[in-house]
Amino acid sequence: MEQRRWLLLALALLLAIPVSARCSLTDNFKLTSPEKVVGIVGQDTILPCTISSTKPLDNPQVHWIKITDGHTEDIYPHGQFGGEPMQKYCGRTSVPGDGFATGNVSLTLKNVQPADEGIYSCIVTSRDWSTDTSTKLSIAELFKVLHYEGDVTLDADTAHPRLEISADGQKVKDTGVIRQVPSNEKRFDSHLFVLAKEGYTSGKHYWEVSVGRRRSWALGIARESVTRKGPLTLCPQNGFWAIGLADGRDYWAYTDHWTRLSVSGHLHKIGIFLNIPAKKLRFYNAHKGATLYTFNIADGSSKEGKFIPFLSTGPATAKLDPEPLLIVQEFDDDD
To answer: Coiled coil: which residue ranges (predicted)?
Structure first.
């Protein structure tokens, strides 16, 4: 047991530097795995590992371990390694039963959790050779910030007269007509904007907005002191940090000089993470967990006051689109 422990520790030190693939001691065998895999909390993740050989394998055996701070954890012991996986991995791991016949000894890790992040090593041995490779499992960044979720309720007193806010303050819809609403200094009168009731001066805050299939929208945060009357431009200099879709074609980050976003497919739900201590505002594709754009909220604005969630149904001149923007209350990857 002691000899095996030191063997695994030596492997841990050797594998601490991620590499895309490692080769066996001979030219006849090669073990290959990706340098990095990104997992999503609550979903199953495959850590790929394949064997290529020029001759039949002689009594091959596979062992998966996790390397954490110089220590190793048994994930999927087999063959000469014997033993059982650690309790937290029981029932959560599997390797294809025909793996050596097909060359696929990938590890499936079920119901991935944040604590699963780390370096995983696949060790394959035969009678006359041994080789290993490692893969770093990272948890999609979005899922690390979900516990900062907070309630966001739209403030009807700030909404442009064309905008209708639902009774629960969770939806905003462009009615296409100027409605009779009370005039007040908080209300936007020239742009289809609305702010939330909540404002933040410290801490970390996360919320999501469903944009559905709307062809135009903008969302992000605004300083409490932003101009509410007359024309204005969305940009940090004016106290707005936002991204949006213009006429169903291009996604933009509304920087002082607009930045076109590289987006694959159509965005349906956006995650917004306001990290005031780090002075960052980050936007995510909430379905894929991918970062869309990050603003430095310390730069470019003379506006003051709280940071307030902000929504817009797009330019008043755009074709009327009755689909609402919706503050998401329950985060679900499949909705």
So the answer is: none
Q: Give the end-to-end CA distance of the chain in Å, rounded to a whole number.
A: 49
At 164-221, the pLDDT tens digits run 999 999 999 999 999 999 989 999 999 999 999 999 999 999 999 999 999 999 999 9
CB 131 within 8 A of CB 124: yes
**What whole-number distance in Å separates Cα of residue 283 and Cα of residue 166?**
25
- Per this entry, what is the length of the chain? 335
Type of residue at 218: A
Rounded distance between C-alpha atoms, residue 59 and residue 232, angstroms: 72
User: 36-39 and 130-139: which strand pairing?
Assistant: parallel
Structural element, H or E, at residue 9: helix 2-14
Half-sphere exposure of residue 12: CA atoms within 13 angstroms, side-chain side: 17
- What confidence tens digit (pLDDT) does each residue in 21-47 have? 444 345 677 889 999 998 877 789 999
Map tokens 């937290």 to a residue: 88
**In degrees rounded to 5, what are phi and psi of residue 142?**
-55, -40
Q: How far apart are CA 245 and CA 249, in angstroms?
A: 7
Q: How far is CA 218 from CA 127, 273, 326, in A?
A: 62, 15, 12
Q: What single DSSP character describes residue 91? A: T
Q: What is the CA radius of gyration of the chain?
A: 26
Tokens of 304: 């003051």
Q: Coil, strand or helix: which one is 224?
A: coil
Q: Low-confidence residues of the chain, pLDDT below 50?
A: 1-25, 80-81, 333-335
* Encoded amino acid at 139, one letter: I
Distance CA 190, CA 164 (A): 15
Q: How far is CA 197 from CA 43, 63, 249, in A?
A: 34, 54, 31
